[in-house]
């Protein structure tokens, strides 16, 4: 595939009757070269409002132009110097942690929206700016299996979850364990909290530089 410069984004669009009902943008950090697997993410988007609007319109048009008229679709895009560029369209909502993140920030359950649309009911998607920000890093089997399988790690994570200090999401895929996330009022607060956790747990390493993956998440 051709490589596009710029920032990478997931745009989850809600479409009913060929009309855009809502859209949610998240930012992805750099991939762990030479892999193209995403390493980190934050939402809501840090792009200026006009650039966000470009991404949403582009994602929506890409979907309807290929006949996706009703449903929740995850569109991966790059925002380049010359505008949005399509990477891929998934005929489903965003996977992994995105559903939980959107539900926490916006009070919208994408799975419920998909169910309503399948029943020919238009979902309601409120439009407001969340009061908090979420930022997280991915955990990979090739690098972090020793952590995920460690009982002390799990106990510490559960304690932090119970206190509301972290968002931890586990998956059962071969190439991704899940994500470890934090909340905060702005990107700097989130970055400091996330890096402190990654250093505590040993997620930050010479082969997985979380500090590099999240340094671009700035206003």
Automatic annotation (TrEMBL):
Q: Which residues form the ATP-grasp domain?
A: 66-119
Quote the PROSITE patterns the UniProt record gives.
ATP_GRASP
Query: Per UniProt, which keywords does this protein have?
Result: ATP-binding, Nucleotide-binding
Q: SUPFAM superfamilies of this UniProt entry?
A: Glutathione synthetase ATP-binding domain-like (SSF56059)
An example Gene Ontology biological process: carnosine biosynthetic process
The GO terms this record gives for MF are:
ATP binding; ATP hydrolysis activity; carnosine synthase activity; metal ion binding
**What name appears for this protein in its UniProt entry?**
ATP-grasp domain-containing protein
- From which organism does this entry originate? Dreissena polymorpha
């Amino acid at each position: 595939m051709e490589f596009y410069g710029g920032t990478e984004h997931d745009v989850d669009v809600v479409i009913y009757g060929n009309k855009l009902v809502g859209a949610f943008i998240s930012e992805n950090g750099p991939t762990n070269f030479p892999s193209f697997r995403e390493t980190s993410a934050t939402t809501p988007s840090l792009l200026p409002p006009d650039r966000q609007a470009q991404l949403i319109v582009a994602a929506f048009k890409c979907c309807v132009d290929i006949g996706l008229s009703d449903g929740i679709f995850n569109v991966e895009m790059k925002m380049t110097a010359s505008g949005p560029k399509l990477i891929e369209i998934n005929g489903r909502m965003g996977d992994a942690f995105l559903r939980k993140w959107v539900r926490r920030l916006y009070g919208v359950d994408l799975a419920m929206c998909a169910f309503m649309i399948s029943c020919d009911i238009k979902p309601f998607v409120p439009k407001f700016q969340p009061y908090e920000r979420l930022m997280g890093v991915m955990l990979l089997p090739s690098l972090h299996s020793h952590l995920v399988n460690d009982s002390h790690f799990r106990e510490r994570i559960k304690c932090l979850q119970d206190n509301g200090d972290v968002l931890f999401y586990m998956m059962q895929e071969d190439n991704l364990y899940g994500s470890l996330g934090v909340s905060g009022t702005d990107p700097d607060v989130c970055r400091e909290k996330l890096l402190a956790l990654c250093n505590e747990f040993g997620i930050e390493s010479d082969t997985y530089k979380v500090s590099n993956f999240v340094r671009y998440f700035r206003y």
